[in-house]
Design a protein that fits this description.
about 35% helix; five-stranded antiparallel β-sheet; 2 domains; about 220 residues; 1 helix; 13 strands; alpha+beta
Length: about 220
């Protein structure tokens, strides 16, 4: 059977687990942007936009509850308890379409919205007694604006490469077509010359035959 030891402390009501059974990992319930989040060291969460620089480290002191070997319940906050976080991303959520329509009133309204948010990496949790629990994981800071700019530059570079390839391919095809046309013209000229020479030879032979017929006619006379 689990026995809980409850006592009143400076930060509120404290609940301690039975030391024989051992404790649990430290966790905290924090409040930011009018919402509450349960976090542990190493967690990554998205909260409402905070005016903090990318990669900066700061502490959240609005801790409503702190759990672990000893549970601290705030009234309403746990005194001297903090959660250390690192800003890893400042971005906006995916687009949400807002469409409104009223039947038989010719009313239509179309909008879209992107909610800005801040991504936080929970680095450590500190209890009122001064005990701190950290994580071995490292925060991964992502600059969304820089990645977007790099993506645009990559797209422009690929388009330029495609256009250059088309131009080079088109010039090569034009040269090949010109060569093929010139070859066809030369072959056509050769064929016409041969045909002309053959016709001339046939005319000459016809004239010779006519002379021979005249000679035969005279001889018979």
């Amino acid at each position: 059977m689990i026995k809980l030891l409850t006592f009143e402390g400076p930060g509120g009501i404290n609940i301690e687990l039975n030391p024989v059974l051992g404790g649990t990992k430290m966790y905290a319930v924090i409040r930011t942007g009018g919402k509450q989040y349960t976090v542990k060291p190493g967690d990554v969460l998205q909260v409402e936009k905070l005016e903090q620089q990318l990669g900066s480290e700061f502490k959240i002191d609005e801790v409503l509850l702190l759990g672990g070997d000893v549970t601290h319940v705030g009234q309403p906050l746990v005194k001297n308890a903090t959660v250390t976080v690192v800003v890893t991303k400042q971005a906006r959520s995916p687009k949400v379409i807002v469409f409104k329509k009223k039947r038989r009133h010719s009313f239509r309204k179309f909008k879209h919205h992107k909610q800005p948010f801040t991504e936080l990496f929970v680095k450590a949790i500190t209890s009122p007694e001064g005990k701190t629990e950290t994580t071995e994981l490292q925060p991964k800071v992502v600059d969304v604006a820089q990645t977007r700019q790099q993506r645009v530059q990559d797209k422009v570079a690929t388009r330029k490469a495609k256009v250059e390839a088309r131009i080079k391919g088109g010039s090569a095809a034009e040269e090949e077509s010109k060569k093929a046309v010139s070859k066809k013209k030369t072959t056509a000229k050769k064929v016409t010359k041969k045909a002309v020479t053959k016709k001339a030879v046939t005319k000459k032979t016809v004239t010779k035959k006519a002379g021979a017929k005249k000679v035969t006619k005279k001889a018979t006379k």
